[in-house]
Amino acid sequence: AGNATAQKRRQEHKQTKRTTSRTNERGHRFTDHPQTNQQTITPAPTMGAFCSVPEVPEIDVEAPEIDMKKAAEAVKDSMGEIEKATDKYAKEMKYPFTLHEKNVAEKQKITEVPDAEKEWAKNIHEYLAACDEKVMKKVSDNVWDTVVVPSVEPQLDKSIDDATGNVEGWENLPGMIQRKAKSTAKEKALEQAREKSKFDERMQVKAFSILVERMTKNGATIDADYKPTEVGA
Predict the structure, then answer these.
(1) How far apart are CA 119 and CA 220, in angstroms?
(2) Is 32 exposed, middle or buried (0-12, 13-18, 19+ CB in 10 A)?
(3) What is the chain's alpha carbon radius of gyration, rounded to the nearest angstrom?
(4) In Å, what is the CA distance from 101 to each residue of 4, 80, 113, 126, 190?
(5) Is 142 in a helix, a strand, or coil?
(6) What is the pTM of this model?
(7) Is the pLDDT of residue 50 over 50?
(8) For residues 89 and 116, is the Cβ–Cβ distance under 8 A?
(9) Of 219, 199, 223, nearest to 107 (Cα)?
């Protein structure tokens, strides 16, 4: 009985020693366990386990020159976003209604409308919709993406490429990590440029001017003292 037990232990020991591991070309490690007739697989570590996305030095961005003629056309092309948001103003408006700049009673009077039958009443609804920042953001985003970004992108990409040259070990980073870092840097720089240029305020003022023109065309009398307030004033 003693010999049989010792022989069994020796056999198990041999099986344990035959446990082997190997790694394939993808970095996955396979471990064989003959004593249980099983195999375990350990996936290769992901890139994120070794690399974090480096921070590109901040790009000093100037307020971009905006082609206001192109911007005005893009605002006109995007007015549908404003027109779609007028329902609640049409339903809630009490007549007669006096419109003030940015719909703030303390600001300049623009015009008034006696009833909903007047053609320019719908333009006032549009003006009120344009006072909503969420509505205007859809318009401004479209103008920014189609007019401004294409004009500043080449120089911005060059500035980011120059900045990455100062990041230690940049050339050794995987392409995926480099692209992610550059993308983040570009996003921050564009946000900074948009803020510096007061872009969103300027696009709202442009939308207001288009809508006041529509009111005039449809028969509204614009207050003689009305003068659009400049951005930043």
Answers:
(1) 8
(2) middle
(3) 33
(4) 101, 21, 15, 13, 30
(5) helix
(6) 0.74
(7) no
(8) no
(9) 223
